Amino acid sequence: MRLANVDGRAVLLTSDTDGIDVADASAGKFGPDLAEIYLEWDGFRAWAEDAVAREDSADARTAFTRAQLDSPSPAPRQIVAIGLNYSSHAAESGFEAPTGLPPTFTKFVTSLTGPDTEVTLPPGGNTDWEVELVAVIGRAATNVDEADAWDHVAGLTIGQDLSERVSQLAGPAPQFSLGKSFPGFAPVGPWLVTTDELPDRDDLPLGCAIDGETVQDGRTRDLIHSVPRLIAALSRTITLLPGDLVFTGTPAGVGAGRSPQRFLQDGEELHSWIEGLGEQRQRFVATPVSADDLATNDSGEA
Ligand code: ZN
């Protein structure tokens, strides 16, 4: 099953451009708000199993375009993100691969967007790319065993853990959460895919390209902490809630790990993909600077 957020309404996909409006097809039992669907995920899954095939869904058919897509989980109460979870990326970042739970931070929810966006580059910053597998939580998870952890995942999607390295690494201790939470720095989508749709949920090819040049090319089988291992480990400290997003870490190939280093520039397009989950695109624009902006800054507004 693939579930999309089309202009704020839950849509079960029948193709990449068509689907069934969940609220219409269920006569209001589920949807249209996706955040509420995760709160009753098991019941929704049971209903959705054959919703697409049901005749009474015919009137609920709807077509959409990519521009209408928003994050498949639009209002997570927590966005948990994991650092250094591929040994190749830990090495390029100058760290040993962590043996215990890898570094954990948040991307604040105001940075969350849909899959195809324009992102303003923070002035004076070095904005970097990190394509990541994102797990969407479907059942609250506290002290979950690794063997049961997949049962707490509603499905998988793509995330870009966009990262501004100057602010991330400034100060006496790294500012991971702030450096990764500028507006638009957490594009997620294009939709949620349940793991039964995938040939192997533990081994998905993922990558990204800038203006057609591939910069990251990995596989999720190389995660140091797999999705179930992460969820089990995180759930010993925090309770993961339905709709929460877990960014699972990025493979090698980020700009900060290159020699010379490279960061996203005005006008560049970042294309990210995970096989079986789809793709997303960000176009980057410089912060506009004009006489008006300078005058505004002088008055203390930003
Ligand atoms: Zn990351």
How is this structure best summarized?
The chain has 302 residues and is an alpha+beta fold. The protein has helices at 22-25, 34-39, 41-48, 87-92, 165-169, 176-179, 227-234, 291-298, and strands at 2-6, 9-13, 18-21, 61-63, 69-70, 79-82, 104-106, 112-113, 116-121, 127-128, 131-137, 153-160, 163-164, 186-193, 205-210, 213-219, 245-247, 269-274, 278-286. The protein has two domains: 2-70, no CATH class; 79-286, Fumarylacetoacetate hydrolase, domain 2 (Alpha-Beta Complex).
Structure description:
With 302 residues, this protein is an alpha+beta fold. It folds into 2 domains: 2-70, no CATH class; 79-286, Fumarylacetoacetate hydrolase, domain 2. The chain is built from 8 helices and 19 strands. The chain has helices at residues 22-25, 34-39, 41-48, 87-92, 165-169, 176-179, 227-234, 291-298, and strands at residues 2-6, 9-13, 18-21, 61-63, 69-70, 79-82, 104-106, 112-113, 116-121, 127-128, 131-137, 153-160, 163-164, 186-193, 205-210, 213-219, 245-247, 269-274, 278-286. Strands 1, 2, 3, 4, 5, 6, 7, 8, 11, 12, 14 and 17 form a 12-stranded mixed beta sheet that branches. Strands 9-19-18-15-16 form a 5-stranded mixed beta sheet, with no helix packed on it. The model has no long low-confidence stretch (mean pLDDT 93). Bound molecules: zinc ion.
